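ok so I'm stuck.
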Amino acid sequence: MIVLLGIYDFSPMFKYVTKYFEDATVCVGNLEATLAGPSRGYSGYPTFNTPEHLAIDLKELGLDVMTTANNHTLDLGFTGLVSTLTYLDEAGLKHTGSARTWEEQNTMLFEDLNGIKTAFLAFTYGTNGIPVPSGKEYCVNLIDKDFIKRKIDQAKEEGAELICVSMHWGDEYHTEPNNTQKDLAEFLIKNDVQVILGCHPHVLEPMEMKTVTMEDGTTKTGFIIYSMGNFFSAQTFANTRNTLILNVQVRKDGKTGKVSVDNATYTPVYVFDNTTGGNPNYNGSDRYELLDIENIISEYEAGTGNWNSQMYNLAKTELDRTVKILGPEIFNNSNQ
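replied:
not stuck anymore, here's the structure
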């Protein structure tokens, strides 16, 4: 008897952008799906169960940390949550935002960012109406200012020099942040969060260096991107295929020890569906690919690569759209 085992391989989707992950000190992504295993049946919207091989492909791509607090955390219940974290563990991916025990929720995730002790936290507005299991309130970090402040204080007490918080918030398909996002961003920065990574709207939203004024008149500044959009998905609504690879560079002052965001730049990326036609590099098997649209433009204009005018025009249109939504890249280093 011959047994054929099918394995889902997501890695071909990343072939044009893999190079941008090679030099990252720490690479963070948001996993808005459940890895509940094949016995639960793989499924899409509205309750996601993604093939668990995705965890391996993300690790091989270069991801280090996955944030797991979002509105799909409990799609397959608590057992699905446990399975997701177990598969991430097995792939060597660290995670924050959901937990299997009280102890796990109370354990702060730290990464060494070239000598800067960095804490990673994640919170979500909700779980799509799926109740958090009674007695297991620890399983997902919900947005609550008192709870968030306790976690930030814990990070600082345990020696965090930099705090990076992922927030699952905002209005789906809106390219501007709402008032709740703005209020929470100010709250986070006032409590010493230096980097805020927004998720959930499925489209890009602006990024900025935000300065807030404290009660004593002093100021604090932090970097925020209100939404990073879908890194990869099959959504077809307006703006849902525009995404980015965000690069945040932080600096530690050798004299004062103060840590601050130096630069925030991005590589615009577009999720392309090859079944729509036009890609001369389509091999007939990889339906979705993440396109490096700036590279397509430069290669076409230089007469190199194998891109046609249709892909060139697409790249120019989507680059313009991306930049208009995100705003300019940020260079705070006085040496720039």
